[in-house]
């Protein structure tokens, strides 16, 4: 019996040893190798967005032949399934096993919040190319010294948009937005700016994330409002305008940029023509740089780039330009952040530089959905025509950093709805 | 294998794990730590599913309560980052147990698929709370923990934290083992086999099930505390139905009613999901395949394999084995 048991245990030990041994990491590599860990959802409901993100970064890498000023780029993509805990695990894998110099990506605000402390704990650079959660570069920025944002903060485009709404002569606006943190921040920024210039938000409706049928919500929209402000996520952004049109509501519709982003625009119908939204990028931006980018991207991936693609393309460009200054040598996390923060970039989306909380200062575009031909493409398509540009908008708009940071982060309760009836 | 040999085997595996782990890659250490934590959760569920015959789909609720408690205390009150970590552990177990005591009032009256539905619904309540109570839980964004506790030893170190978790795992395993071997545990098995008979024999079966439910909740809460410090971030994604389903599948995969089976299941699932997914893009097929094959061919889970082999041998007419089996039973 003892003999047999021993035999079995040996076998078990061998199995355990094998299982553990499989993952023993191979460390280091050539000195001139730049390892970039990229995190994006590649399975699940957000897989297509994740693809746009990855494609954007990959396009830039292909353009330069995977060579950043002499450093050979090793681009390692991991799937976070759009779930923060999975994202954390993958970030740890990239940092600990692949020993990447930087983590890039993450899609959702919640993923951004989850990845930020990983960067602090493991002392690895995290470039938030897409996650927009305000506090990453506002009230919590001191907690995340290794975080650099190259995308945008949720309320950044909303502030000028509020002012724009006043200029249009809107006095009373109702908001209807998806019930999650990103929605609160986009709506909150708009409300603050709009009420700051004399407008009134008279109603706020929060349909749950993933709502398919807006039947219960649309009839409750106040009839005497001048316009409707909307922010939807995922399939909601397709359903809402359709059902709004079917209900015969002809009021002007304005909204957060992600609702009308080029990612969803091709799937939308003519009912969205005339809707106005705002973001720091539009594929219809009429600059030679953007025209070239759109054509290249479309030729390669068969679709118009979304801001997800542009954001990661530009992030790759920024990393490249820092390495140009160091001749391809990795300068170390701290130094890299210092260098990046001080640089100015001429990017596809326009000029970009960073504020002292490591968030981009960039153009904000007011965009109107139009059906037209662009960049020499033959068919009539929906494009986000830029109607107004607010240059060099910081995340604090005109409020001033210290003043702005005194207020709590935008939420369901803040700013309070003073004019709600 | 006799019971004594089994205990010996488990001990040898645990010692080997303790000895080998520090020499694997730092990511591997992290995955093993995660597997041990989910192992505690799976074992707590096994008390219900395997020993009492109550298939709960809400075990993530207790994990979530423990994790959120840890995160809220740490982030809002700076509590639990030193020696007070041990207080948080106790509080985590208590909050899991108290939640289970409350949920049990609704759930225990039901059995079978109704029990499944009620626990599912109660689990979703916790998710709803985590998602909507913005000021406390941070809503969709979740809460970030400042850092792992430090009291003489630094839990921020992967290996140290692994040993702490391993310690909790071993203690949990021993306690649960003692529990299922006790007269109380035996009566749970009796309830699983035939509740009516137990009731006729004079057992208060409702109370037995209720207590088992609370104990399972307590261990779930413990897993939550450890989980929060492992990830450094707690979001509603931790409390979603998928986590409960995972726990259930871990137990089924490993073998219900065996305790260590749950831990083995947790190990297999963690490695397939978090390790294989970094190697190949088609890992989901492997995970799915493993589940389907287990359910089709291994009703006793992975722990049922030796038994099955012996059974095979016995059927193929090995007289010695048959005799042994007969004398054993």
Care to describe what's here?
The complex is a heterodimer of chains A (421) and B (329). Chain A is of the alpha/beta class and 421 residues long. Chain A has 2 domains: 33-153 and 287-354, Rossmann fold, CATH 3.40.50; 158-279 and 363-406, 3-Layer(aba) Sandwich (Rossmann fold), CATH 3.40.50.2300. Chain A is 36% helix and 21% strand. Chain A is built from 11 helices and 15 strands. In chain A, a hairpin with a 2-residue loop joins strand 2 and strand 3. In chain A, helix 2 (47-63) runs parallel beside helix 9, helix 3 runs parallel beside helix 4 and helix 5 crosses helix 6 (181-196). Chain B is mostly helical. Chain B has a domain at 25-240. Helix content of chain B is 75%, strand content 2%. Chain B has 15 helices and 4 strands. In chain B, strand 2 (150-151) and strand 3 (153-154) form a beta hairpin. The longest helix of chain B has 27 residues, at 26-52. At the A-B interface, helix 1, helix 3 and helix 4 of A face helix 1, helix 2 and helix 12 of B.
Short summary:
The complex is a heterodimer of chains A (421) and B (329). Chain A has 421 residues and is α/β, with parallel strands linked by helices. Chain A has 11 helices and 15 strands.
The count of β-strands of chain B is: 4
Order of helices and strands of chain A: HEHEEHEHEEHEHEEHEEHHHEEEEH
Q: Rough shape of chain A?
A: globular
Number of domains of chain A: 2
- Our estimate of the beta-strand percent of chain A is 15-25%
Please tally the helical runs of chain B, counting DSSP H or I stretches of 4 or more residues.
15
Question: Could you give the distance between the termini of chain A?
Answer: 82 Å
Secondary-structure topology with pairs:
The complex is a heterodimer of chains A (421) and B (329).
Chain A: H1 2-22, E1 33-40, H2 47-63, E2 67-68, E3 71-79, H3 84-97, E4 102-105, H4 109-122, E5 125-128, E6 147-149, H5 158-167, E7 172-177, H6 181-196, E8 200-205, E9 227-231, H7 236-246, E10 253-256, E11 276-279, H8 288-301, H9 307-325, H10 333-342, E12 345-347, E13 350-354, E14 360-372, E15 381-393, H11 401-406
Parallel strand pairs in A: 1-3, 1-4, 4-5, 5-6, 7-8, 7-9, 9-10, 10-11
Antiparallel strand pairs in A: 2-3, 11-14, 12-13, 13-14, 14-15
Helix pairs in contact in A: 2-9, 3-4, 5-6
Chain B: H1 3-20, H2 26-52, H3 59-77, H4 85-107, H5 112-132, H6 134-137, E1 143-144, E2 150-151, E3 153-154, H7 158-181, H8 183-193, H9 195-200, H10 205-231, E4 233-234, H11 241-254, H12 260-275, H13 283-297, H14 305-315, H15 319-328
Antiparallel strand pairs in B: 1-4, 2-3
Helix pairs in contact in B: 2-7, 2-10, 2-11, 2-12, 3-4, 3-5, 3-10, 4-10, 7-8, 8-10, 11-12, 14-15
């Amino acid at each position: 019996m003892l003999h047999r048991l021993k035999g079995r245990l040996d076998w078990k030990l061998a199995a355990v040893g094998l299982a553990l041994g499989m993952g023993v990491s191979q460390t280091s590599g050539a000195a001139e190798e730049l390892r970039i860990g990229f995190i994006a959802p590649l399975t699940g409901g957000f897989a297509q967005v994740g693809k746009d993100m990855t494609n954007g970064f990959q396009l830039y890498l292909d353009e330069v032949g995977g060579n950043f000023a002499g450093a050979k780029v090793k681009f390692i993509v991991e799937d976070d399934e759009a779930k923060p805990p999975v994202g954390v695990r993958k970030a740890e894998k990239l940092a600990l096993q692949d020993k990447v110099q930087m983590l890039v990506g993450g899609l959702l605000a919640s993923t951004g919040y989850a990845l930020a402390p990983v960067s602090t704990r493991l002392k690895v650079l995290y470039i938030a190319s897409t996650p927009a959660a305000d506090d990453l570069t506002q009230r919590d920025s001191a907690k995340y010294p290794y975080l650099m944002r190259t995308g945008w903060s949720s309320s950044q485009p909303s502030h000028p948009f509020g002012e724009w709404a006043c200029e249009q002569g809107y006095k009373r606006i109702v908001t209807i937005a998806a019930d999650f943190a990103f929605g609160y921040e986009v709506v909150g920024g708009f409300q603050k700016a709009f009420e700051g210039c004399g407008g009134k938000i008279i109603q706020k409706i929060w349909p749950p994330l993933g709502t398919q049928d807006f039947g219960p919500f649309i009839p409750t929209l106040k009839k005497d409002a001048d316009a409707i402000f909307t922010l939807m996520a995922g399939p909601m952004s397709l359903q809402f305008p359709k059902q709004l049109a079917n209900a015969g509501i002809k009021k002007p519709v304005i909204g957060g940029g992600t609702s009308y982003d080029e990612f969803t625009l091709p799937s939308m119908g003519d009912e969205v023509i005339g809707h106005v939204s705002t973001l720091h990028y539009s594929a219809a931006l009429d600059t030679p740089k953007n025209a070239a980018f759109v054509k290249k991207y479309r030729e390669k991936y068969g679709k118009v780039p979304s801001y997800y693609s542009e954001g990661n393309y530009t992030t790759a460009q920024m990393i490249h330009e820092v390495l140009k200054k160091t001749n391809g040598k990795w300068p170390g996390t701290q130094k890299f952040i210092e260098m990046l923060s001080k640089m100015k970039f001429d990017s596809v989306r326009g000029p970009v530089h960073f504020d002292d909380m490591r968030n981009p200062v960039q153009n904000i575009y007011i965009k109107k959905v139009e059906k037209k031909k662009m960049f020499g493409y033959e068919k009539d398509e929906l494009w986000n025509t830029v109607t107004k540009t607010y240059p060099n908008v910081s995340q604090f708009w005109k409020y001033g950093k210290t003043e702005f940071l005194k207020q709590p982060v935008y939420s369901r309760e803040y700013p309070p709805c003073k004019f709600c009836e | 294998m006799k019971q004594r040999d089994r205990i010996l085997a488990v001990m040898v595996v645990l010692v080997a794990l303790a000895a080998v782990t520090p020499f694997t890659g730092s990511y591997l250490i992290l995955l093993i730590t995660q597997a041990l934590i989910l192992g505690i959760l799976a074992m707590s569920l096994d008390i219900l599913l395997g020993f009492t015959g109550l298939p709960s789909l809400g075990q993530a609720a207790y994990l979530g309560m423990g994790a959120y408690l840890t995160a809220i205390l740490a982030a809002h009150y700076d509590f639990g980052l030193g020696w007070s970590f041990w207080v948080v552990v106790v509080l985590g177990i208590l909050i899991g147990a108290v939640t289970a005591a409350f949920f049990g009032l609704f759930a225990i009256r039901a059995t079978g698929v109704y029990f499944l539905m009620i626990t599912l619904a109660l689990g979703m309540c916790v998710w709803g709370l985590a998602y909507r109570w913005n000021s406390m839980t941070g809503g969709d964004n979740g809460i970030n923990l400042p850092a792992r506790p430090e009291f003489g030893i630094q839990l921020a170190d992967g290996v140290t934290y692994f040993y702490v978790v391993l310690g909790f795992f071993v203690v949990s395993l021993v306690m649960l083992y003692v529990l299922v071997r006790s007269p109380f545990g035996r009566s749970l098995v009796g309830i699983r086999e035939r509740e009516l008979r137990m009731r006729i024999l004079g057992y208060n079966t409702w109370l037995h099930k209720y207590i088992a439910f609370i104990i399972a909740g307590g261990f779930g809460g413990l897993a939550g505390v450890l989980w929060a410090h492992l990830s450094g971030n707690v979001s509603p994604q931790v409390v979603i139905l998928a986590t409960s389903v995972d726990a259930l599948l871990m137990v089924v995969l490993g073998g219900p009613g065996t305790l260590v089976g749950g831990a083995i299941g947790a190990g297999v699932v963690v490695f397939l999901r978090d390790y294989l997914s970094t190697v190949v893009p088609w890992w989901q097929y492997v995970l799915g395949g493993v589940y389907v094959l287990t359910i089709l061919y291994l009703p006793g889970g992975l722990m049922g394999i030796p038994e099955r082999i012996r059974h095979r041998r016995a059927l193929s007419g090995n007289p010695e084995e048959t005799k042994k089996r007969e004398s054993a039973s």
